[in-house]
Amino acid sequence: MLFKQQALLRQKLFVLGSLAIGSLLYLVARVGSLDRLQPICHIESRLAPPGLPGQIPLRTLQYKRGLLHELRKGNASREQVRLHNLVQQLPRAIIIGVRKGGTRALLEMLNLHPAVVKASQEIHFFDNGQNYARGMDWYREKMPFSYPHQITIEKSPAYFITEEVPERIFKMNSSIKLLIIVREPITRAVSDYTQVLEGKERKNKTYHKFEKLAIDANTCEVNTKYKAVRTSIYTKHLERWLKYFPVEQFHIVDGDRLITDPLPELQLVERFLNLPSRISQYNLYFNATRGFYCLRFNIVFSKCLAGSKGRTHPEVDPAVVAKLRRFFHPFNQKFYQITGRTFSWP
């Protein structure tokens, strides 16, 4: 009899323990999902100081991640959109470049901020004549759903080097904020080459070595017709943008520093966008296996960038590197002068 009572007691304790663990796991998941969920009322003390130029009226916002996910998939009803006061807004800030400078990492990291929503794909509206001809309504429909006080950001790196884009963006919004993320020009050019090389190798196609593309065989000078080199002449492209926008509407992000120490760069962007400081070290953790920082949205949800990021670069002939450094040096100095930001590029 005593043995049966002990067995029954153990069974009851097991059931109660299972219920307690299940409830705890539910609460953890619930808290995690609420970490960026429903918008709550104004909390003035949490907003940026009033009176900043171009200050955007913000609430302390937390995402309904599940609902926004359904909206992105097209599964949410019009009634849900209406009830939650969600809209598709034109971007108030655009990451216009530079290709292989870290545009995807920057966009994903800014999306940590509760007042920012991102367009998931590169839309190529302003640099693609066929897309541009579809009109502004088509462009707006490509934007994510958001709350009215959130900022929508998109990124298309080809914007920076495409001649027609500055005027087209100016016609949409002459006061838009423009983000440019740059890396040391030679590093960026080699990264550009590496991405193209990988694509060729997947298709079993041959491709010239970087040195042969970067140096003109006839003149032995730097080949400015090679796109990877031309894209890294940042000042040439920026000067075209400055015909339409004042330098104050640009913010230059250090793409090399975003890899090694991202938080200070993100805090500078928050200030540029007149956003209250929300991104903290908690949101960024270093993944030793990947060699990059990953993103933590809450205690449940985190993500790392795609495996294609951080490709191994080929070794480049030191003589070619030296020639490229001499070539880029005057352009870099002018870029520092225009933007007011100096980098430790050799």
TrEMBL record:
The active site is at K100 (for sulfotransferase activity). Its EC number is 2.8.2.-. The chain crosses the membrane at residues 12-29. Disulfide bonds join C294-C304. It is found in: Golgi apparatus membrane. 3'-phosphoadenylyl sulfate binds at K100, G101, G102, T103, R104, R183, S191, Y293, K309, G310, R311, T312, H313. Pfam families: Sulfotransfer_1. Residues 91-335 form the Sulfotransferase domain. SUPFAM superfamilies: P-loop containing nucleoside triphosphate hydrolases. It catalyses: alpha-D-glucosaminyl-[heparan sulfate](n) + 3'-phosphoadenylyl sulfate = 3-sulfo-alpha-D-glucosaminyl-[heparan sulfate](n) + adenosine 3',5'-bisphosphate + H(+). One of its GO terms (molecular function) is [heparan sulfate]-glucosamine 3-sulfotransferase activity. GO terms for cellular component: Golgi membrane. The keyword rRNA-binding does not apply. It is a single-pass type II membrane protein. Keywords: Disulfide bond, Glycoprotein, Golgi apparatus, Membrane, Signal-anchor, Transferase, Transmembrane, Transmembrane helix. Its main location: Golgi. Belongs to the sulfotransferase 1 family. This is Sulfotransferase. It comes from Denticeps clupeoides. The gene is HS3ST5.
